[in-house]
Structure formats: structure tokens, C-alpha cells
Amino acid sequence: MQPNPFKLERYFSQHEFTARHLLCTSDPESMSIGELLAYEPDSIDGLRDTWLGYTEYPGAPALRRELATLYENIDADEIIVHTGAQEAIYSFMNTMLAPGDHMIVHMPGYQSHYTVAEALGVSVAPWKAREEAGWSLDPAELETLVTPATRALVMCVPHNPTGYLPSRDVFDAIVAFARKHGLWLFSDEVYRGLEHDRADRLPAACDVYERAISLGALSKTHGLAGLRLGWIATKSAQVLERMSTFKDYLTISNSAPSEYLSAIAVRHTDALIERNVSMIRANLGVLDAFFARHADRFEWHRPRAGTIGFVRLKREGAERFCAELLERTGVLLLPSTLVDHGDEHVRLGFGRRNMPDVLAIVDAYLDATVTSTAS
Ligand SMILES: Cc1ncc(COP(=O)(O)O)c(C=O)c1O
Predict the structure, then answer these.
(1) How many angstroms does the Cα of residue 163 sit away from the middle of ligand 1?
(2) CA of 38 to the centre of ligand 1 (A)
């Protein structure tokens, strides 16, 4: 199997570590190992004593016990730890889908949600977000997309790249649809916890539906992408069995120091969420003012969750705009061509501490381009 290149990741591999300013990243501000250890001052001894042999196949039991606390109805043995969420997506697609199957996927979306399946010979029906309605989904459309070959529905809540978070009614309708048709509900929840208002948090899909697979990671909600720690949680013994067996051909087991540090992070989930959401809220205030000033150039649907939003450019193509912005200011935005969604939008990230400074650079650039066009 040779999936098509992951366009967004190829773009980041080229620019993420060379661009002077990042304005499209989805992971919030991270921290050093020292800062994480400070949440548990005696934990340095445990890190020093961490044994560097292989760890248990599905993930260290102590870590899985911590992860289980993030759910209502999930036990430690209903979790498989992976190397980032990405490995788990690849494993799910390879183990639970087969050539000739059909799958419904929320679009625009995160490319590995559909490209891996397509490479396996699975046909993908896009369930399209409606920009005019704040990038929302209409569950009534699902009945028009389902076929006798449909095996899975992939959703991403909160969503990359639009920041959309369904209401509880819409979420319940999605689960009811999946249950009615006996579908696997692969629910990418790597941004779960980053609701801008805590009251908007939805249940984890695995807590409410027996054929749901909830995908979690420390990369986004906790801001710790360098730990490369993801997991799936599910009540399905079949999924657990198949994905465990497949992992033998991927990373076998996880990194012992990462698992140790990850358990600390999970114990302090609430504090890490508070740290990230307060930064996000402050940045959103700055963005509101920015978009009010530039209403002639951009259309912005303020997300209710997560670290990213999808902005329409009213005047120019996204690829050209991003290329010129990068060349003239060193600011990196992400054009929608890289998420297979035309050339009219850019993905903007607002989870980093320096976002207001980077936005000020864009502001000055826009003013300068208006002046130079006028003169
Ligand atoms: C929706 C979504 N799922 C999965 C991933 C992959 O996460 P990880 O870095 O933990 O592999 C990302 C990363 O951007 C993402 O945005």
C-alpha cells in the first residue's frame, strides 16, 4: 500500500522549522520536560529510575489506568497506547476496513482520515461541512450517503481544520445513525478538552456507543506533541484484538520515558487544559479585533473549540497569499489546497503564546499592501 503524500505534513516538513513565525499550527504552546516534571516535584527520581527495556504491548498499565480516568465507562484494558494519534489512525484503517468497503468522512478534514483508506481500496463519501452555517454538519444528510457497503463513519470533534464542535443534539444524531446502521464510529477526539467554554464538552464517543473508537493524544489538548503519545479507547473486543495484533508490525511497544512522562501529564489534565484554554481565549479576543478591522478581506467563523480555524479570503487565492506572506514576512499560514478544499481558505492556529505578536506582523503587512496598491 502506498498512500498519497500527506500534503499538510509535507508542507510542515518544509517550513515548520525554517519559517520565522508560525500562525497555522494545531498544537498549542508546549513546554520542557522540566516544566512538566514541576507538576510533581518528586517525579524526577521516577524518570531517572525508568527502566529502558521494552514496555507492555498495549501500553504501560500505570499509564492506561490514568488514561481510563478520562472516560466514564472505559477500563484500562480497553485502551491501546500508540505512538501519536497518527499511528492509531493508520492501524484502525488497516485492521477494520477492507477493499470494496465504503466509509463516510467529515470534509474538509485531516488527510489521514481518508487517504489511508483510499489506498486500501475503500471508497470514501465526503460528508461536507457547511461554511455558510458556521462549518456545521447536517446529520440528515447521512442517510443520503450510506450504502450497503458502508462500514465506518469518521468524525473529528472538535474539528480540524474548521474548529467546529457539534451541539449535543447533533452529536446524539450522529451516534444514533451509526448505531442504526451498525457502523464503526471512528471519533478523532484529539482536541477534546479544548472547548472554549467547558459547558460545551461532548461525551467521548466510546462512552456512549459500543462500536465507537475514540482517538486521543497528548499532542493537542495537553500541548505535548513531542511525547508522541496517542491511544484508542473502545468497548469493542474485536477492535482491541485486531489493532493490538497489527501494532506488532508498527512500533510493537511505546517509549518507556514517554510513557512515564505521559502518565504525569494525564494526572494533570485539568491544569494543562486550563493553561491552554486561557491562552486560546486571550488569543481569540485579539483575533476578533483583527477580523473586525479586516472584514473586507476575510470571513471568519469563530470556533467554539480547539486551536484552529478556517478563514475565507475574499480577495485572493490562498496559495498565492500564503506564499507571498511567507516570503515577505516569514509568517507561515496554511492554504486550503493542502486539505483538499479549493484555494479560498487558510488554516489559522491560535494556541501559541506569541500569536498576538505574529498577528501584528500580518496586520502591518496587510496595511502595507493596501497602501502600496492604493499608491
Ligand atoms: C485531527 C488530528 N488527528 C490526528 C493528528 C495526529 O496527532 P499526533 O501528532 O498525536 O500523531 C492530528 C495532528 O495534527 C490532528 O489534527
Answers:
(1) 14
(2) 26
Domain boundaries, the chain: 7-32+270-374, 47-268
Percent over 70 (pLDDT), the chain: 99
Q: Which helix or strand (DSSP H or E) is residue 335 part of?
A: strand 334-335
Are 312 and 344 spatial neighbours (Cβ–Cβ below 8 Å)? yes
Ligand 1, atom 4, residue with closest C-alpha: 85
For residues 146 and 174, what is the distance between their CA atoms, to the nearest angstrom?
Answer: 12
**CA dihedral sign of residues 290, 294, 298, 300:** positive
Q: Which CATH superfamily is domain 7-32+270-374 in?
A: Aspartate Aminotransferase, domain 1 (3.90.1150.10)
Instruction: Tell me the per-residue pLDDT of 142-167, one tens digit each, with 9 for 90 and over.
Output: 999 999 999 999 999 999 999 999 99
Would you tell me which CATH number, out of the four given (3.30.990.10, 3.40.640.10, 3.40.50.150, 3.30.1330.10), belongs to the domain 47-268? Answer: 3.40.640.10
Grid coordinates in use for 260?
512515564
* Chain CA centroid to CA 167, Å: 18
Give 338-358 pLDDT, tens digit per residue: 999 999 999 999 999 999 999
Q: Is 188 in the pocket of ligand 1 (CB under 6 A)?
A: yes
CA of 202 to the centre of ligand 1 (A): 19
Q: Is 88 within 8 Å of 82 (Cβ atoms)? A: yes
N-to-C CA span, the chain: 55
276 lines ligand 1 (CB under 6 A): no
Q: List all residues 6 or more positions away from 7 whose beta carbon is below 8 Å from its beta carbon.
A: 111, 337, 338, 339, 340
* The ligand 1 atom nearest the CA atom of 229: 10
Distance 126 CA to ligand 1 centre (A): 19
